[in-house]
């Protein structure tokens, strides 16, 4: 019986309970925090393995894409279960992976946004914050499609990669201030969540970084032609393994994202994987397919 329940909406409280339960069950799993959200929620990371090759995976930069947090936790649990039981997944032995790879996941980059997307204004917030959020959301109480953090800043547009160009795209779209999506904020890493992720990336120096989003069954793998030949090969193999398509972003989607910043700064393979197919927030009925497709890709990444 697995700990991570894939049949329920994945709130911050679910995440924290699962982290505690997984660490009790699997003593080789390590947990640490890289910072806090605007509302003071922990930005928890989990570490599997002690090898030289480093992978950093993160999910839920966008509030309504909380299914990516569930995906990362379920994949991590599968790795832990297989290592402890001594069973392989296909040809991949997880005990070997543990000794060859250091895998770190930050399953929920934007916990405040996740809570707002799932709970709306029913979660405890100061009255002035609720008033402010309503104004950002055009006075609608429906926050189910909310992407930004609690400040109305889109965390995946808050990194230092063509940031000024992104602001120009925002203006063309009529976005001049905090909003449910696309507003990049006053400057790169202005938000505690994006700064924490960037600071950890600078400290950890991964060999491969992946940001999980939804939806589209697409793998984005370049930024301004800076990707390496190794990155192209990895992306092509992941597409073959999963059936996902390779694509390039354009317009506002091509600016100031985490993957863009990593490629620009470190010149390592970095990917945005848009999991699933449908309308966000994706229903849990999609999860099993998403899990199988992305587990195959992750097994490849930890084995190369």
What do these coordinates show?
It is a single chain. Helix content is 39%, strand content 15%. With 304 residues, the protein is α/β, with parallel strands linked by helices. Strands 1-2-4-3-5-8-6-7 form an 8-stranded mixed beta sheet, with helices on both faces. Strand 6, helix 8 and strand 7 form a beta-alpha-beta unit. Helix 1 runs parallel beside helix 2, helix 2 crosses helix 10 and helix 8 runs antiparallel to helix 10. The longest helix has 19 residues.
Please sum up the structure shown.
The protein is of the alpha/beta class. The chain has helices spanning 12-25, 67-85, 94-100, 111-119, 127-136, 163-172, 192-204, 229-242, 258-266, 287-301, and strands at 30-36, 42-48, 53-59, 101-106, 208-214, 218-220, 245-247, 270-275.
Topology summary:
Blueprint lengths: L11 H14 L4 E7 L5 E7 L4 E7 L7 H19 L8 H7 E6 L4 H9 L7 H10 L26 H10 L19 H13 L3 E7 L3 E3 L8 H14 L2 E3 L10 H9 L3 E6 L11 H15 L3
Parallel strand pairs: 3-4, 3-5, 5-8, 6-7
Antiparallel strand pairs: 1-2, 2-4, 6-8
Helix pairs in contact: 1-2, 2-10, 8-10
Order of helices and strands: HEEEHHEHHHHEEHEHEH
Number of strands: 8
* Residues in helix, %: 25-40%
Major sheet description: 8 strands, mixed
- Secondary structure class reads alpha/beta
Number of helices: 10
| Mean pLDDT score | 97
Lateral arrangement of strands in the main beta sheet: 1-2-4-3-5-8-6-7
Kindly provide the radius of gyration, computed on alpha-carbon positions and rounded to a whole number of angstroms. Answer: 18 Å
The N- to C-terminal Cα distance equals 30 Å
Low-confidence stretches: none
Outline type? globular
Beta-strand content estimate: 15-25%
């Amino acid at each position: 019986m697995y700990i991570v329940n894939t049949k329920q909406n994945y709130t911050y409280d679910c995440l924290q309970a699962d982290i505690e339960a997984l660490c009790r069950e699997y003593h080789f799993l390590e947990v640490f925090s890289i910072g806090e959200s605007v509302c003071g929620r922990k930005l928890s990371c989990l570490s599997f393995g002690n090898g030289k090759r480093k992978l950093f995976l993160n999910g839920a930069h966008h509030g309504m894409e909380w299914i990516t947090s569930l995906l990362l936790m379920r994949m991590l649990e599968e790795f832990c279960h297989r290592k402890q039981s001594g069973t392989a997944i296909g040809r991949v032995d997880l005990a070997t992976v543990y000794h060859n790879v250091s895998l770190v996941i930050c399953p929920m980059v934007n916990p405040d946004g996740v809570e707002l997307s799932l709970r709306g204004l029913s979660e405890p917030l100061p009255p002035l914050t609720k008033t402010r959020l309503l104004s950002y959301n055009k006075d609608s109480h429906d926050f189910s499609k909310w992407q930004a953090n609690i400040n109305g800043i889109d965390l995946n547009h808050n990194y230092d990669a063509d940031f000024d160009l992104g602001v120009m795209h925002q203006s063309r779209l009529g976005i001049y201030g905090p909003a449910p999506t696309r507003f990049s904020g006053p400057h790169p890493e202005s938000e505690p969540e994006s700064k924490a992720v960037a600071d950890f990336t600078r400290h950890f120096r991964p060999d491969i970084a992946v940001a999980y989003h939804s939806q589209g069954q697409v793998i984005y793998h370049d930024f301004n032609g800076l990707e390496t030949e190794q990155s192209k090969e990895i992306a092509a193999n992941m597409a073959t393994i999963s059936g996902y398509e390779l694509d390039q972003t354009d317009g506002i989607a091509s600016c100031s994202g985490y993957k863009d910043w990593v490629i620009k700064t470190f010149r390592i393979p970095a990917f945005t994987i848009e999991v699933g197919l449908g309308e966000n927030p994706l229903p849990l009925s999609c999860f099993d397919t998403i899990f199988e497709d992305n587990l195959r890709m992750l097994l490849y990444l930890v084995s190369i």
